[in-house]
Amino acid sequence: MAAGLVAPLAARADAPGGSAVVLNPDPLSRAVGLPPAPGSAVAKEDLAILLWLQGARTPEMAANTWLLLERNLGTFSRALGVDVVKTTPQINGALKTFLKPVDAVKDTLKDRYQRPRPFVSHAQIQPCLPLEQGYSFPSGHATWYRAAAELLADLVPERRERLVAVGSHGGNSRVLCGVHYPSDVQAGQRLGVAAAVQVLSSPQWKAFKADPAVIAEVEAIRKVPAAALPEQVR
User: Fold this and answer.
1) 126 within domain boundaries
2) pLDDT grade for 19, boundaries at 50, 70 and 90
3) Which residues face 14 on adjacent strands?
4) Exposed (0-12), middle (13-18) or buried (19+): which is 57, by Cβ within 10 Å?
5) Inter-residue contact 148 to 76 (CB < 8 Å)
6) Residue 81: phi, psi to the nearest 5?
7) DSSP 53-106
8) Within a domain: residue 210?
9) 27, 42, 65, 100: which could form a disulfide with 173 (CB 3.0–4.6 Å)?
10) DSSP 8-class letter at 158
């Protein structure tokens, strides 16, 4: 099999209404690309960035990364201006389901490339998050957070900039704490965007957006005035 292509699979998950979203993994694999070769210029830059961040991060910065440890759609609440779990339960529940096939493709790619975590390959890396046993490329957090941001932005496009900022932070926090290389996170973000495009084009997503209950939840978000949203740090 050609390098960069995953084995054929039907990445799917039960979607709202009992149907399923099926992703085509081959274009997603091409969007991710290959991990840097050991000893390459990119691999050396990956390590240099991790070591610099390790010396520069503060206890407060490290503590903030723990807020993103659990992949929870509630993380986007401040970007939207509502409590995602309490105010938009239909959206909260459905997006978890739509994100399952994205995770399935990510897991397949991790198992194919088997890139060791930074702290496994480099003893000088001292993570500030719990050590994880899975492979490093692409980053699962970066994939999930960016895909979630893209799906939410399709529902509320006027919040897109804020949502993508949260989606990016979900992956970048993994670099700050030394559990992923920068190139892992970049690959995960590419996967998240490409996978979201497939989800958004699916009939299941179109039916979901047309659901009156979902429309009502989107309107509840839009009722929050821009002036009431937390100020973005730039």
Assistant:
1) yes
2) low
3) 20
4) middle
5) yes
6) 90, 5
7) HHHH--HHHHHHHGGGSS--GGGGHHHHTS-HHHH-HHHHHHHHHHTHHHHHHH
8) yes
9) 65
10) G
